[in-house]
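thread from #wetlab-drylab

HS: before we spend reagent money on co-crystallization trials with flavin-adenine dinucleotide, can we at least see a predicted complex? here's what I'd submit
DV: go for it
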Amino acid sequence: MDSYPRDPDFGAPPPSWEDPDDAWPVPPGRRPVPPPPDGRGPARRAPRRPPPPLPAGRTPPGPPGFPGAWPPQAQRPLAPDVGLPRLPRPAPSDSVAPRPAPGVAQPPPWATGAPMDPLAPRLSAGPPSNGGPAFGYPGGRRLSGRPLPPVPRQSRLLALLFRYRPSSHAQALTTGLLIGVLWWFAVSLTLMPLLHGRAPLWSVTAVGDRLPSLLAVVLLSSLAGLLFQEAAVRHLIGEQSSRTGAVPDPAPPRVRVVILGGGFGGVAVAQRLERLLPRVPSMDVTIVSQSNALLFTPMLAEVASRSLEPNHVGVPVRAACPRTRFRLAEVDRIDTDEQLVHLRASGPSTTEALPYDHLVLALGTVPNYLDLPGVRANSVPLKTIADAITLRNHVIARLEQADVAQDPLERRRQLTFVVAGGGFAGVEIIAGLCDLVRGVRRYFPSVVDEAEFVLVHGRDRILPETEPELGDYALRKLRHRGVHCLLETRVASATADAVALSDGSQLPTRTLVWAAGNHPSRVIASLPFEHNAAGAVVADASLRLAGTSNVWAVGDCAEIPDAAGGGRPCPPTAQHAVRQAKALADNLVRVLEGRRSKPFSFRTTGFLATVGHHSAVADIRGRCFSGILAWLMWRGIYLSKLPGVERRLRVLLDWAVEPFFGRDIALTSPDPAAPGPHGRTAMRRSSPR
Ligand SMILES: Cc1cc2nc3c(=O)[nH]c(=O)nc-3n(C[C@H](O)[C@H](O)[C@H](O)COP(=O)(O)OP(=O)(O)OC[C@H]3O[C@@H](n4cnc5c(N)ncnc54)[C@H](O)[C@@H]3O)c2cc1C
């Protein structure tokens, strides 16, 4: 995930990408976990009851919607902590199990009768993770129909050079090619002449003379790369162990790692775990997400303003993490006692249960409408690709309606665009809408000049997380372009026809974009762990939730202290989510190896935000940039952070084509604000709650 937005090297570190007034309240105000009956501490929960004995010959019932899949798990003698009171829990231990001596197969604790750490994750017995039934017992249901290839036992160097993946032939080929070219340069052009007492052949003529040999080297080394990956990495190492008479280790118990959420955090955890698989081959990683693509949110406003095509800013999770199982489903609830995630996959009434040994929460946030009357029903957020599509269609539909509207008030409503929230997201959206409407003037010459753009913001300056000079620049720029920036004003309520403001005024409008706050979803809020005032779960510096040994959290849904920031909570940005994800995966693997975890620490590098019309603001390591230079930086940096060459090319093409052909105005869905069955509330249906 190094190639993610604003992430690693440049990024957006503000406390919030929404209106910071309403968004992520920075603690200390934490919602306390309800005290336990005996008052022993917030992490206490009721002791687990052992399952009731079953009549002979009967299998226990499975969870709803998942017949037959579960019983073996419930019956297996693999959970000696069933029946143990889970609490009081000791402080989470980093070393959940003593590290086994290398090469010595360790029997599971339940087989030896050794006392088991009640905090240790329950491991499932059964066949190796990949290629066997998903839950490790006969009849277990696969989560993904895609069989995963076996994990080769690799040395670290081999793993680094030829990271094995089913689709990594291109990588093996290019690695071989690179090694060949380096060898040609070092040996043929440098070493051999030196050995013969001559100067290295580095002149253009000498290199030109040896081009045929370079071609041969390129061909041979690429081929060797491929062969080496297939033969050496997959087979030779296995043969070696049988030649020396070593008995292959028995399959270790599988460790089921379930990642909830396929956004920046979740995908980055999976990618890092894939890289670390050779260290713990028994890991079986599954991502559950209600969207099958990782959305590159920094470019979402460009999608909404029709600068980019929607599918160019999403990367399929299956492509991003090919060695991870993927499950398209909505997480309904999490049972931390039984270590089950209940999923809703194929309809509101069908649920399935997915067991885990380690759980990673990466569910992000959902819009927070602050219970303002009518706002949820009459606004559109910008969180998902569907939101962006809704918005881009909605704006063009408003221009179409305004073009034929006879009533001046109705025409004004159609042409007034209101955005709530002057944080980064709000500023980028209002700037993008302005660009969109003005950019289609040739199709709507009679209405575009009447369009009004209003930014409603609760504080006294926009982009309050940045240096004041950048906020001031953005404000000047927006006002210069005709955007009404209403500072120290809030949205009070909304109807289908108007938005009421805190100063008592009414804005006749049919467009309200909500960028004034997010909070974690109800799935996160309902977990029996400590939460902060915004409802985010509180993790410790190793990214584990307090009082648990196997529940981890990453990204916007969690409050995570940053050691580099003096323990202050990280801001909710993609930059931080990706960094946290890497640290989390490293810690999870360390824990599985019986080693100590490390605290998360990351120094924020900066932020960038567009303010429309080829201008942006940027703060890179304390240095401020604005105008077209910042805009070029924004485009260059985000293009480089977009995952995958293909996506980068597509985005580059979109940007290259736009100046020549303008923005497209084709409507790709029915007008959501038109009267009829689709109705106005269809505007916001896409974002998760
Ligand atoms: C318009 C906009 C612009 C932004 N610009 C920037 C920027 O320029 N730089 C930057 O650093 N940050 C930016 N951010 C913030 C950044 O997107 C977030 O900080 C980042 O996405 C957080 O990552 P995450 O993994 O925690 O959550 P997300 O990336 O939001 O991922 C959450 C995932 O969980 C899934 N999910 C949620 N609920 C459920 C459920 N019940 N069941 C199943 N799946 C579920 C979602 O579908 C999603 O795939 C921007 C955000 C927005 C909205």
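DV: The chain has a mean pLDDT of 76.
HS: ok that's useful, forwarding to the group
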